[in-house]
Amino acid sequence: MANPQPENGTVRIANELWDEVIRRDFSKRQKDIIFFIWRLSYGCKGQKTAYIPKLVYFELCGIPTGNFHRELDRLEALGVLIRDREKKTFEINKNYDEWKVPLGGGWNEFKFDELLALNLDESRQINAKNRVKTTRKNALKQRDFEGSENEIALKQRDASRQNNANLEGNRVKITHSTPDEPNQDAGSQPPIDIIKDINTDSSSTKILMLNQGTAPAASRSKDFSFSKIYTIYEKHFTENGNVSEFEVQDLTDQFETYGGEWLLEAMREAVRHKIRTLAYINGVLNGYKARGGPHKDKNLQIVGGPADYQLADDDPIAQKLREVYQL
């Protein structure tokens, strides 16, 4: 079974020329000659002319012997064919305004444009579906990769907690690092199980790290990849985890335009304000762009230098986490 591919060679002809050949009242033989010359010219490394040393070669496209001169002379007189008899080259005139061929009887430009629009829309939908499949496949691969890394991180964290288990009198310290997923605001705190869900990855617990002593903030990588963004959107911004192809397109555009860090922060804002739509996220991103970046959290205080952050004692999220984990 034939399986033609573009990399095996193409005849690159502008759509305008194809449209003109379709709508003009060419005979079958005339169209055969046009296609034959295009194949031997633009189909051979894009050259403009076809070298045909003997007219008998036109038998290959179905022109009977004895009709070569008549058909070629007719196309030349109609301004369609440019012929150099000495060099034995043939070229289709790209200036179709010079063609003296009438329109076909059934041509309707409005219907043709309508049909083009239908096919272009169908092509976009197919491409979008393929893009969704690829994105989901990559997201699953990323989850598997993160799962193996997080198992190692969990073992290291448990070992660190065991070493600090006998230490007493240390003040509970909540070290701030950018959450992997959106958090709720104080005015509308969700149930405890939702807090756990928003701040917990399927393969490892990624709650805002509450440790005695110094929290290992450096051990947590800040993941702003599209895979992470997509996973969060699929889990917290959709019904039953169904992401449409149009949502994928919009989310991809936002990621490529503003970057993963800004997009993740805008998603947190959407959760806090209970407006979980891409339109709202886009509005937040536009606001970031106008201000030169996201506003910093008012409850965030710098402690001990720019690399070490600590939430204020009256921070509502910190209070809720203390209640959940009895710290």
TrEMBL record:
Domain of life from the UniProt record: Bacteria
Ranges of compositional bias, category Polar residues: 175-187
Domain Bacteriophage lambda Replication protein O N-terminal intervals: 7-99
The protein, known as: Putative prophage replication protein O
Compositionally skewed regions (Basic and acidic residues) per UniProt: 143-160
GO biological process, one term: DNA replication
Segments of this protein annotated with the region Disordered: 143-192
Chain ranges of the DnaB/C C-terminal domain: 240-291
Family of the protein in this entry: Belongs to the DnaB/DnaD family.
InterPro entries to which the protein is assigned, alphabetical: DnaB/C_C, DnaD-like_sf, Phage_lambda_VrpO_N, WH-like_DNA-bd_sf
Organism: Paenibacillus mucilaginosus 3016
Regions that span the bilayer: none
